[in-house]
Amino acid sequence: MTNWLPELEPGKGPLYLQLADRIETDIAEGVLAPGTKLPPQRNLAFDIGVTIGTVGRAYNLIRERGLVSGEVGRGTYVTDHKETSLVLPVAHTEPFGGTRSATIPSGKIRMDSTAAIEVGQSAAMERLLAELTKEYPSEIASYSRTLPASWQQAGSKWLSAAGWVPEPSSVVPTLGAHSAILAVIAAITVPGDKIAFEDLTYCSAARSVNLMGRRSIIMQTQGSLTPDDFERHCAQQHPKLVFLMPSLHNPTAATMPEEHRRAIVEIARRYNVWIIEDEIYGSLMTHDHVKIADLAPERTFHIGGLSKSVAAGVRGGWVACPPHLAARVLTAHKMVSGGMPFILAELAAKIVNSGDADAIRAKVREEIVAREAIARSAFAGMEFTSQPLAPFLWMKLPDPWLSGTFKNAALNEGVLIDDEDEFKPGRTEKVFHRVRLGITVPTTRDEVRQGFAILRRLMETDNASYDSYS
């Protein structure tokens, strides 16, 4: 038995999660060697000043992660597992995380969102909802327990790109793209499995992974994921699943080259890694890039939706699955979301199948192009990354601005933006000195110009007045 005693920090997240993470880190670093017997739960609880229930929850969690084994009356022992010798990133102790406020202050210019621009969607919605309620009065009044072919056909149509058309029977309608991500994770992973994310990404997915008892690992990159980065992490960390945004990466606005897509597919096959291909922003692009799902249909879950290009409020999403897994993902989606509301699923399908979605998307694209041009003019001479059809900019801050400080200064001046920490899936020493500026939520181009003018003035101002000395 070891004399090992962990140090926990009150206020740094749930104590049981801190304890589990501490045990995992000490196993990875060799402090707790394979075969080591952990202290009895009652003894450890007394020694570190927590309840026995806290220790019990921590021990159960590390058992789920495959780090220990044990029997009643015999004790808990560190397992001899090849992965325990690796130094793993420290997991979040606060699964909800994020740097956005839970509530949105009123009277601010919102550049912290990339929901589809308002281009008159309400007219189409009014017409389609009237048709829907007239055609399906009983379905609206009850739970949806069917999967109409029209829902899957709409998903196949919306997800199709670059010559790839998913088989409708492989498509699962979901309550938006985020819900699709959770359904896939629930369907093909178990607590303790590792899911790989780039060091900048859509972090709500990574936080959800941690909340579900899976472990997010960070793939350190040099700006965008390369095949070498991916293979290194597969060899060292053995992820079960990787989350990618290849066609329009959030927040960097990068596009993965085709040769990298093909190489990553081959690496995923060698290491038996599942792939989530999140194309929520890709639906805005007009240039064709080969889809990972087309290259590796047996292991790729291709996800898309309406929120960035048609209407976020509809919550319309779909996931094209490897054929033998569609039923499993459908069931998992029902479990994690409570089920697909008929009125939203039918509305999303009608928007796509009627052609209204394409017409709305064309208007949204046109407005994004105009606003991105305004950004290029407003920030002339400054460093940022964008694409003409991207609904956001990845802005480099001039010295001496830090990302979090600039976000707070912008809020004080009436503009909501996202700092870089909003897109970091875990703790990292890497600093980008960037912020993401969304361009789609302001109601007019003049409001966009006003927000940009405020931000440019701030960037050209010494930040001393915004430093905190408290």
Automatic annotation (TrEMBL):
CDD domains: AAT_like, WHTH_GntR. InterPro entries: Aminotransferase_I/II_large, HTH_trans_reg/aminotransferase, PyrdxlP-dep_Trfase, PyrdxlP-dep_Trfase_major, PyrdxlP-dep_Trfase_small, Tscrpt_reg_HTH_GntR, WH-like_DNA-bd_sf, WH_DNA-bd_sf. Residues 13-81 form the HTH gntR-type domain. Pfam families: Aminotran_1_2 (PF00155), GntR (PF00392). One of its GO terms (molecular function) is pyridoxal phosphate binding. Keywords: DNA-binding, Pyridoxal phosphate, Transcription, Transcription regulation. In the C-terminal section; belongs to the class-I pyridoxal-phosphate-dependent aminotransferase family. This is GntR family transcriptional regulator. It comes from Phyllobacterium brassicacearum.
